[in-house]
Design a protein that fits this description.
The chain is α/β, with parallel strands linked by helices. The strands form 2 sheets. Strands 3-2-1-4-5-6-7 form a 7-stranded parallel sheet, sandwiched between helices. It has a 5-stranded parallel sheet with strand order 9-8-10-11-12, sandwiched between helices. The protein is built from 13 helices and 12 strands. The protein is globular and about 55 Å long. Helix 2 links the parallel strand 2 and strand 3. Helices cover 38% and strands 15% of the residues. Helix 1 runs parallel beside helix 2, helix 4 runs parallel beside helix 5 and helix 10 packs across helix 11.
Length: 336
């Protein structure tokens, strides 16, 4: 039996790594989860029911704020991990786990699927023992970060194909939000404005998209990331459905007639589940989204008039289902 430390630093990491944690625990390994209280991360952990320890805070979008928060959290994570005799570490982009792992001699794997977060990956790829990314990302884009074989390992497909392998949307989420299935349902995900690679800015297309959708009679669910974003969206129009806490975003992505997202994970979830999806992401497109665009599974939106506001086919063409055991085997090969 191994002792494995898993660090979750944003909401998406909970759903990405949950199947791997459950596989590890089913195999008799002891998994310790830590979490940064950013966006809905701890809410999703509470809904899951897995024990966790909260470490740190988010520093906002500025470089100074991030640097101060990162330094503080890394120190706290070091104190937390010291003396616990972890055998391995696993994270999806946590700079803290890779730094503490290097300092304490804990072999660890960092995962990511967006290659242009240069500062983050420049640290993680050099400090981690293993770097695991989708094979859509060309190896030459990662060499500058110090990620080269054998440290660099690429997995087939998309991470969403693994954690959504057995997933079927739960229609009860629509009832909980007061949404009528017979009418057009649009789901809109706000930008991670706190992300350094977006410079703290809000997406200028978002209000125009929301007005277009409402003008076409769509029921619009806005999945905001912060209290500030929630207040701003409610102020824009009282007809918008803006949940106060974390909801089942995967089911919404699978049941919606269209998705418009300024963040990456929901774009790819919708694309994998076969839902029409438009990206209003303002950062540099990553290789995964470039591939999905070539396949016709996502579209980059430049003008809200380009949206098709209509009921989508009831039968969705999924991109693929992959066994999460295979992803875990690549992430922590010594445990399987």
């Amino acid at each position: 039996m191994a002792r494995v430390w898993v660090d979750l630093t944003n909401s998406a990491h909970v759903v990405v790594l949950r199947p791997l944690v459950e596989l590890l625990e089913a195999g008799g390994h002891e998994v310790t989860v830590t979490a940064r209280p950013l966006s809905h991360t701890t809410e999703l952990l509470d809904d899951w029911g897995h024990s966790y320890t909260t470490i740190g805070r988010h520093g906002g979008a500025s470089r100074l704020g991030k640097a101060l928060a990162a330094t503080s959290r890394t120190a706290q994570a070091f104190t937390f991990a010291r003396g616990k005799s972890f055998d391995y570490g696993l994270a999806h982009g946590s700079t803290d786990l890779s730094a503490v792992g290097r300092a304490l001699g804990i072999p660890n794997t960092t995962m990511f699927d967006y290659e242009w977060a240069r500062l983050q990956h420049g640290l993680n790829c050099r400090l981690a023992t293993r770097v695991l990314v989708p094979d859509a990302i060309p190896a030459e884009r990662l060499a500058a970060y110090g990620a080269r074989p054998p440290k660099l390992v690429r997995y087939p497909g998309l991470k969403e194909e693994y954690y959504l392998a057995d997933f079927e949307p739960d229609e009860s989420v629509l009832g909980e939000l007061g949404i009528e299935r017979e009418r057009v349902v649009a789901v809109v995900r706000t930008a991670p404005s706190y992300a350094l690679y977006l410079g703290g800015s809000e997406n200028e297309l978002l209000p125009r998209v929301l007005r277009r959708l409402l003008g076409e009679g769509a029921q619009v669910v806005v999945l905001a990331r912060t209290d500030e974003q929630r207040r701003a969206r409610r102020k824009l129009d009282s007809a918008l459905v803006v949940p106060e806490r974390a909801v089942d975003g995967r089911s919404l992505a699978g049941l919606a007639d269209l998705v418009v997202s300024a963040g990456g994970t929901m774009i790819r979830e919708a694309a994998v589940l076969g839902t029409p999806v438009w990206s209003i992401f303002e950062g540099r497109p990553g290789a995964v989204d470039e591939q999905l665009e070539r396949e016709g599974r996502i579209r980059f939106l430049r003008d809200p008039d380009e949206l098709t506001v209509a009921k989508a086919p009831a039968e969705r063409q999924r991109r693929g289902r992959r066994d999460p055991v295979e992803l875990l085997r690549l992430a922590l090969p010594d445990l399987l």
